[in-house]
Amino acid sequence: MSSVKKPTSYDRVYKDECMFSFSTPESPGGLFVNLSTWKAFGEAFVKQDAAAQSSTGPSLYLQQLWERRPKTDEELKEDEAKDKETTKLAIGVEGGFAGLEDKPYKLEKSNFLVVVPSMEKVLLPCVDLPEVVIQACEGVIKHQGSVVQDTIQEWEDKPQVSRFSETLEQLPNVPRISPKPSDWVCAVCGRRQNLWLNLSDGFVGCGRKQWGVDDTGCEGGREGAAVLHFDDTGRRFPLAVKLGTINAKGADVYSYAENDMVEDSKLKEHLLHFGIDLAAMEKTEKSLAELQIELNKKFEWDRITEAGKKLEPLAGAGYVGLVNLGNTCYMNSIMQLLAAVPEVAESYGQTQALQLLVGSRDMQADPADDLLLQTSKVFEGLLTDHRHRQRKQLEEKFAQKVEALGRTADSTGIEAAFTDLDVVAPRMFRTLIGRGHPEFATARQQDAEEFLQHLWEEVSKAERGQSGRCETLPAFRKLAPLFAWESEDKYKEGATSCVCLKKTRESVLRLEIPQEAATNMLEVREYEKNAKDLPGAGEKVLPRVPVQACLDLLAQAEPVAFRGRQCMKTTRFATFPSYLVIQMKRFYTAPDWTAKKMEVEVPMPEDLDLSALKAEGMLAGEQEMPEEPDGGAPAQQNTASGGGGGGEHQFDEMLLVTLVSMGFSENACKRACLAVPSPNADSCLNWLFEHSGDPDINDPPPPGSGGGAQAQAGGGAAGGGASGGPGEEQIGMLVSMGFDSRSATAALIANKNDVGAATEWLFSQGDALVSSVETVLSEKEKTDAAAAAEAAAGIGNAEATGRYSLIGFVSHMGSNTSTGHYVAHIKKHGSWAIFNDEKVAKSADPPKELGYLYCYKLTG
């Protein structure tokens, strides 16, 4: 009992979920919080924790036991009276999403002091207990918990100040705008709602047509006149304000140039230019936030259909949903896709694997910081029926309580009230996998493909650093190598038949979509003509591009300058991966540098034959191309993405000039060239826009670094970005505080090059600093050695012919990767299922032509 203590508000208290499973206070048996470590464990793991934590005697735990009690008739009536409209696109704030008020039950919360392993318990509160125990229990009960600490309590989609606000051009002699909403009308279609005023020239037109939102765009389903006016005027006037939202507190302002909602820092001044007094106006229409919330409310599961058919919900092992923790659909979709890979399920998804990782962990370390353990926890939660069986037990108890109130137990209603217990919330995993990353640590929407690369990299580092633990797992396979292969770039000089073969490590096959190859352009043009003449008539027709056209484009020979020679370069598979991830490059950078998405269909077959893309190596009559006289690196070769090691990077000077001319720093452009495979202007621009917020974007690329896509792809020896080795400047900052360079290096390695976190780590070590430093550096040395050995071992299957079968795909809905929503479709036991965050159902007609990422299994 001497170690029992009361937590302060600054301490991390895990009171919401088991460290090793997804048991919560509502699970049978409840949740046990260790009063010495403030870590929580389900009934299946509490004795194991007690045995590991105490060698001198029993341990004390706070048991939280919550049960759902049916609401009485009076309580249900009170709920109806309290129901109010959500008015703010926010969580946990006044007017935002409320939570559980509309549930047909109340939570009855009981707390007990439990002695483990004897499991003797005392109902709390109890005045007869020692004061230190009472204080410890009360401190845990009142503590906000780690979930709140790791989550932004008040999340709101707050727009950024537009870069055009201060210098916006406003034309003279513009029309005065009436303050009366009844006088406002679209200059093109005559509509009188959802009208936007251009703040430069005074044009009034309908807003953009938005996916899933009624009454947007111009009359008849056409695109809104306001955005078309922006294009028609040479894209000179970027800012528009929604007239019906103007009030004393502000208004909705959209920047067509920035393709986002923005804040106009001079809105009052800009409106006065048209005679509009901000303070005198009253809001008459819903804001875009309110419209978005209204759209969210429509997304009821029983209304999501495919080809007009209602979807049948699925539950149980392999059909467990993932809670959206706030723009985490990109993560949820990727985790569901990976869980469908048998080798991943065998390595991480078995209960036995989870238990072995629990038993082999560092007992002094925080389980929430153990990536192998938290990864296994998620996959085991998805692939077992623990939650489903617990839910059924709780439903039976709830039905008995309903009948005790004299009401009939409606099985359908009860099932609906307990669906949230059939899912898992990967909070610890999400916090850990995003830690230290400039994007994945935030609550913003992300690119699913980038997250997949990041996940491969982080798990690969954990696997290499703890290879001994991994070897104890049954049927263990490293994660990233399952998806990696060797690509062969062949440079051939036509005049001499001299050939150079370069091998690179790849993990995602990125396919460009040649829209000009669409097979239905006549139907598309007919639809576009009809839509213009008779808006709203007929179902929208998208260009349909055969996947073979994408593969043919990939297979084309490309003229390049190489080793001072004019060569033709082709790229082929030297080996084939066990699982092939294909990215359809639907996203591109428009001439105005905004991110766009192609509206195009690419029907993907369930069986794919890539045998035509198998590398042939050196052919008869071809000879090895000699090195350059000075032995230098090829002018066109990007050593980071071409399989080269350290040393100075060689860049395509013309490509650098092109990128720099677009306004990016030279260092940022060099980082882009190193990060993408086979760099060109388009791929580098995409990378630059996606990484423009990186804190080190304008720093010189570290020597020998690179392969952002490559290293991440297969967890290769070279790391990139925030996860690479510490830089001299970072080490110098810590040395200036009085630490030696060795300790500074270790601290930065331990904290992913975060100087602030590294500083805190150094001060927190105390007398253990020397041993902690040696442990970190030793682990780093082992990890680097394992990475080198892994790279030397070769990847992929050189004997395979390249035949694949589709196991699943991830689709994106929205205009670009920073917005919208991701869902996954996965084929299990011969049938397709859709995974939409918490919701899982049979898929009647999976949209294989609209996917973003596809995962194929090697079959031959």
UniProtKB/TrEMBL annotation:
Catalysed reaction, written as an equation: Thiol-dependent hydrolysis of ester, thioester, amide, peptide and isopeptide bonds formed by the C-terminal Gly of ubiquitin (a 76-residue protein attached to proteins as an intracellular targeting signal)
Sequence ranges assigned to domain UBP-type in this UniProt record: 160-278
Signal sequence, renumbered to the chain: none
A Pfam family matched in the record: UCH
KW Ubl conjugation (keyword) present: no
PROSITE patterns: UBA, USP_1, USP_2, USP_3, ZF_UBP
Active site: 329, 821
Enzyme Commission number(s) of this protein: 3.4.19.12
Domain USP residues, every copy: 320-859
Leading EC class: hydrolase
Keyword Repeat carried by entry: yes
Residues engaged in binding Zn(2+): 186, 189, 206
One record GO biological process: protein deubiquitination
UniProt KW keywords: Hydrolase, Metal-binding, Protease, Repeat, Thiol protease, Ubl conjugation pathway, Zinc, Zinc-finger
Protein name: Ubiquitin carboxyl-terminal hydrolase
